[in-house]
Fold each of these.
Amino acid sequence: MNFKSFLDKKSVNITAKAYFLDALGAMAFGLFASLLIGTIFTTLGDKLNIPFLLEIAKYAKQATGAAIGVAIAYSLNAPSLVLFSATVCGIAGNALGGPVGAYVATVISTELGKIVSKETKVDILVTPSVVIISGVLLAMFVGPGINAFMEAFGRFIENATELRPFIMGIVVSVSVGMALTLPISSAALCIAIGLSGIAAGAATAGCCAQMVGFAVMSFKENRWGGLVSQGIGTSMLQMPNIIKNPLIWIPPTLAAAITGPIATCVFQLENVPIGAGMGTCGLVGPFGIITAMPDGGTRMWLGILLVCFILPAILTWIFGEIFRKLNWIKEGDLLIRN
């Protein structure tokens, strides 16, 4: 048996799909099941004065690294011992290098664990040892560097947005908004680079444009269920339809290109990293703006209403109707299929 056949036997598929689509998508689910849902609980508990939710949120956030680790290992079809051991790799990677550190440490250690799994008579000792030792060493080796790079990159974007709020407002809004709809995590991206300030406000605008935009534009096909699932859930539900007809992605993206600079230049909206990439998901984005701008006043509230809700709905609907008239969007193109 040659080495490739051995890797195939062990379900080690060295492909871009496995590592940059499946694993990254799984990381997003792990983040949502821990840090992001914890943030939603924190927001609700704080604003509604429910201490019980705050307590739940604390434990959910503490599980971030473990959730990322097990989610990634699951996406890579890891056997049981590898899957359970990956929680340690995720914890170490997240502690030393944030979500990206957890991703790197878990992906490599999981594949190493799959290779040695059930190859010895003491598998119960060998497999978790290989996974945990390799994962923690990787976290220690690459984590600090990843963390430093992500922080520096985040500061670069923030400074560039402050110097060129109009142009960077468009760039950040469009790019982060598209990341939200892709099967990766815009929230993970913003958290990883520590995006804050008006750059985070532009990111929020882009995410809201995608979520609210798709929700409104597809109302004919998906009605109220689609409005809720996309508007306060995720626009990622439209990804299969985007693959079939990429033109449906243009209207909300155009809306993001308009609302981004409005957020930065007109209302100077700010946000915190956890809210920047969430958009209207659980209303975390708007609540994040409130958290970042406690003294924002009427201008902030008007900005939230217009940038996060009203303008994305109106602009995307207008662009969508134009595309329908041009027959670029056809009946059923936006239907969400379960």
Note: The chain has two domains: 3-148, 164-325.
Amino acid sequence: MGTRSTGNTFIDFLRGRLQTAGTLAFAIFLAFAVGAVIIAASGDSPIVAYGAMFQGAFGGVSKTASTLAKATPLIMTGLSVAVAFNAGIWNIGSEGQLFLGGFAAAWVGFTVKGLPSPIHILLCLAAAVLVGAFWAFIPGLLRVKGNTNEVVTTIMANHVATLFTAYLVNYPFKVPGSARGATVYIEKTAELLRPIPFSRFSLGFFIAVGLVVLVYHLMTRTTLGYEWKMVGLNPEFSRYGGISPERAMLSAMLVSGALAATAGAVEVMGVHQRFIDNISPGYGFDGILIALIAGNNPIGVFLVAVLFGALRTGAIGMEQATTIPSELSSVIQSLIILAVAAQVGFNVLLGRMRMRRRRATC
């Protein structure tokens, strides 16, 4: 009996993974198919346009590095959102956590001097993690103690964080005489190595890959990950099973905030070498879309983030080779999101119809 039960559980797990992968693959195919129709209607060849997009994203070491550099913050914000969503708490505040984490890393980077590079880098990352986790902990605590809607509080926290850091880099920490709101450059010992010339690709990408492995292990191989999943599926049922939903949600928010803040730290240490005003063009909000498309799966988050990075990098090459504007990449992203949402909605509707049929036959 035990063997049969274990086998059935594994089959159900595998079926669920294949279904998620199939949903994502179909959504991507559908989005590119609709994009091809738009390209053809504009008078260009979809084959030429997509070929130029692929070349722009992966046509050489430098272009591939640019794609991975664009994907790096998206991987970490996607993981941030996925952890929280998996535990049933809606962290919409990754953007603000990224801003505060980035500033904390920058502050340690230009304030602390004379440390060996590995220690200085770790200290900057630690500062970002602590600040990001703390900023996520506040709405998490309000949610579990006061039943406050975390969607509202995290959105409000985003505005507070972005405006606060904008004040810091435009007034007390602004470089005198600079036209742009920015801090001084961090120490060389705090910079992440950029191994490819003329590229923003840095060791931050490997930090992101390491976090994918870590989060995947947490979600699938630890008691904490099991508690997140159970609370995300049914908080009340998990309570009867001896799991504290409040503790699980708070721990998920702490990890979520730390991941988002790490994205900000990597942007500071690996890309800009200082904190600048509006350092993120919306990586935190992109992370929400990536997590939803990937079904909160860390491996899926990595793949979707790389796809988004490729679309954004390749769109420039496509625009240069054809008359198609680079904004088509945003259209394709939106179509992927719509296709995934439509499939999820269809599956829910189909499940309800089956339930009604079963009730009718009973």
Note: Residues 1-6 have pLDDT under 50 and may be disordered.
Amino acid sequence: MSQSKPTKPAERLLSLDFFRGAIMFLLIAEFTHLFSVMYDPALEGSILYFIGKQFHHHPWNGLRFWDLIQPYFMFIVGVAMPYSLANRKKRGHTNSQITKHAFQRAFILLFLGWALYCIDPGKIEFRFQNVLAQLSVTYILAFLVMNKPAKVQIIFSLLLLALTEVIYRGFPVEGFNHPFIANENFGTWLDLQYGGADLNGHWVSFNAIPTTAHTIWGVLAGQLLMSKRTAMQKLNILIIAGVIGLLVGYALSPVTPIIKRISTSTFVLVSGGWALLTLAFSYWLIDIKKRQNWARFLSVVGLNPLFIYLFAHVGGAIFIESILHPFTFLLFGWMGTLTASILTSAIVLFLLWYICQWLHKHNIYIRI
């Protein structure tokens, strides 16, 4: 892991920084427990409760906003890959050096994803369901095909979805041959083989295979944005592709349910469609309409995504909250415990953002 300065602002796509920053801002917000506080049963029926509900994963068959965050993350990594590759080539890196770096990066992501599961229990556990472990697979698979023609990349991504359908539907082991029932599917069986099954949350490691499509589609979007097409042509292609993903995904949902916890093909298609449309909106607003000043608030989070995610995940958010708690409850306790908790979480989130702002101000960027 090293410190490096990003490319010059003129070479950057601000909508990419904004999109990535927005996703990271929401991911670190989870560690402040802000969404959990808003989902308090005491608030049921209120707008805060509705928002809080949308920031919790759907228990199984269905889709909430929070179910889109990991696909967004996988997708935006893919969007950044063509830019990163171009910058490395400009610095004189050979293809073998770039490939070596890609595999090293994938290994580090896998190691960090696995290590996070060992911190809380304080013992070695082999689990690979979190975003970093999953990204290590999606990143390297997308990298291996990113220099192929767009048609080849699309076909490869769809073959991964088809493979997932075939394996889940045709898995022959008794007790694990119910593709869309929690803990009775191929994904759970696979994790049981190495002792890393998540029987409570129903997440599976095999998700990395179908969700690789998100990263590949991100690569294609990045290559599109780097192309010589006009801005409106790029925007139209993103919108059309996004709408196709939504239409096909929702149309097939009666056959294959939309389940985020096992990344069904319909879930990948629908969430991929939303990712493309969200990128299209960001590109239209920030790079076409040039509404950029307010976007910089979130962009700074996107400049140090790995650092702030790990910092918040390993206890940074809890540490800040433990320091603030006595003071915020002294100041806001008269407003009620629930309100004081929400305000405390909001202040913790702001301080996490400020850490990113401080790093950006001092030109400190953590890269792997």
Note: The CA atoms of residues 38 and 46 lie 10 Å apart.
Amino acid sequence: MSRTRTTPHLPGLAALLLLPLIGTAQDVHFSQFFDAPLVLNPAMAGDIEDDQRAALFHRTQWQSTGSPFRTYAMSYDVPLFRSRMHGRYLGVGVHGFSDRAGSTRFGDTQGNLSLAYALRSGERTLIALGLVGGYGQRSAVLNGMRWDSQYNGAGHDPSLESGETVASSTSAFLDLGAGLLCRGETRAGLQWSSGLAVMHLNQPGISLFGSSEDRLLRRYTAHAELRIAGDRWTWMPKLYVSQQGAAREVIFGTLMHRRIGQDSRYTTDKTSSAFHLGLFYRWNDAVVPMLRFEHRRKLAIGLSYDINVSPLRSSTHLRGGMEISLQWVGAFSDQRRVLPKGKVH
């Protein structure tokens, strides 16, 4: 997850207190964006080879502030009626996240339902259209903040009047979005995918103080990737671009993986594992190395760390963030085929 903010010059203490409230209309993001498909684009619901996919994410950012950003997220999606619809499917997915930030414990919690319809365009191309709807809530504990008027010359005295009229506050809203996904394969075996999404179509109000002017701005997202299979290594270049108001995020880089073990040559059972290495760059913000291990094509564990290279590093000593992902993809039933003479692989 990245939080790129334009922040005026503030004293160190004030900056740490107010940082979670500056630019609160910006969405949560993940450095491992390709493992959070429902956050990326609702049209990706059900976009898997197997029958179901579940994922968990944990993100800790800016640990050096003493009150770091912590994000937890989950998702689950399935493609329905694929066998009956001859390769087409109805994708259904749910995902949610909870984000806590800073001394004010600024909270951003949301749950979403995504629906996608995928259809074939020729023998090698698939097009999916998706919609997402959700319910969100934002909150902050403002009455525990420290103010200049509460310093008695020797330290902070919470019994002194702050002179400020603030209190704990919440806001709730409904959220809508839409997306498009295209994927295919060339005759030479090169696999590709690309997508577009628009989130917060209704631009819901998110003010903690009842103002109608504070709205969640639309987020426009484009993403693309290639899959280039070599003799030993498979290369997967990826690109993510997002624009939300004045905030823009661009991430590009590549993952490369090598299979460990062999898949069966006689059945549909695929049980090989894979080790992934990756390096990504978030424009003007961070370098992101990644490690990922996939066990028997079912369970994948990813680890990444944002190495902050922006001016924010030197001015506030914010070093970056660690992200851990856990993804499971599986089938509802045993897909293996029986070999001749009654043997099963």
Note: The chain has a mean pLDDT of 81.
